[in-house]
């Protein structure tokens, strides 16, 4: 049987896997990345965060992103419980926290392809349309994978380290029984794209810093038992998604399209914005939105991105956490090569570093759903209109500054704790 050998095998070419592979190849490691799909391929998660700039600089893709024609995102609007006045949070109001006070709305197919092509440029061997049938273990130590072309024969590919970036498939976590859905965040999302829907004029909402022509905001609007995202993309396309409590969604008659239509109609603003627009994509669904695995590392392997955890999309944290985690994972592996130690104990520095920001955003997400459940019109997001310190702290956290801010400091600014 054919055999191959690499320093590191990465399963999955999404943001986490490609970032891990890029940093490793930059350091001189022999890296193989396998993905069962052919890029570009559709993914959701289109709203990025200003905290991404330092990560994109580390990967070397800033120029590629600038040339891609993505829509500039200048902030976020919250429409809370039918109020006519949105809560507008602009990173430019407090620009000193980030390299640039804006970011992008991206078509993930193109964004992910940019990251993967960059990995190839850095020396990663990338094989698309290759499937991983299993991860090989010797005792508790991962030693490689069984993989081959889609619908073809598999063969062993050995490696000192296996990086699982297989996304929601969570190959290793499922194999080891580590995956833990979050019962508090038992949500379901239905989403699609529209052509010709309403787009805000940035001059109407951007009141701090430079108004960038053609820029957009991420809109989040509450509805009964959930919320709606509204993300303007390039080429007159808008991404619209509804996130509902999974148990309550089952009471809405019909399938995903019917639940989506019913939910959108419950928001007078969103339903008006898409009136006359054309739905150009079949309805997509993600269920059991949030999970957090028991462990992210073991002897000879690491879990990155959605293979480690899946974060509710309300604050657009997923891509930033995935790339940051990929970089942290690569740094831990590089350290392992320095002293020939790939034990779970050695690699756990990655898990410790990425759990820190992820735990902060999970706390913020829990608080969000408490706000939805209470339907309190005087909630902390609405109060951010009139409390400058609260607004500043919200903006920092929601721009991806998880190392700079936490929910406890936000609640303190809101006057909810001593």
Q: How would you sum up this structure, described in words?
A:
α1 runs parallel beside α4 (108-121). The strands form 3 sheets. Strands 3, 4, 5, 10, 11, 12, 13, 14 and 15 form a 9-stranded mixed sheet that branches. Strands 1, 2, 6, 7, 8, 9, 17 and 18 form an 8-stranded mixed sheet that branches. The chain folds into 3 domains: 4-49 and 54-59 and 109-180 and 292-363, FAD/NAD(P)-binding domain (3-Layer(bba) Sandwich); 72-102 and 187-287, D-Amino Acid Oxidase, Chain A, domain 2 (2-Layer Sandwich); 376-414. The longest helix has 31 residues, at 344-374. It has helices at residues 15-26, 52-59, 62-66, 108-121, 171-176, 202-205, 246-249, 256-265, 268-274, 318-339, 344-374, 380-383, 388-398, 407-414; strands at residues 4-11, 31-35, 71-79, 87-90, 103-105, 125-128, 130-138, 141-149, 155-164, 187-195, 216-223, 226-232, 237-245, 278-279, 284-287, 291-292, 297-298, 301-303, 309-310. It is globular. A hairpin with a 2-residue loop joins β11 (216-223) and β12. The protein has 14 helices and 19 strands. It is of the alpha+beta class. The model has no long low-confidence stretch (mean pLDDT 95).
Topology at a glance:
Blueprint: E1 4-11, H1 15-26, E2 31-35, H2 52-59, H3 62-66, E3 71-79, E4 87-90, E5 103-105, H4 108-121, E6 125-128, E7 130-138, E8 141-149, E9 155-164, H5 171-176, E10 187-195, H6 202-205, E11 216-223, E12 226-232, E13 237-245, H7 246-249, H8 256-265, H9 268-274, E14 278-279, E15 284-287, E16 291-292, E17 297-298, E18 301-303, E19 309-310, H10 318-339, H11 344-374, H12 380-383, H13 388-398, H14 407-414
Parallel strand pairs: 1-2, 1-9, 2-6, 3-11, 9-18
Antiparallel strand pairs: 3-4, 3-5, 7-8, 8-9, 10-13, 10-14, 10-15, 11-12, 12-13, 16-19, 17-18
Helix pairs in contact: 1-4, 1-10, 10-11, 13-14
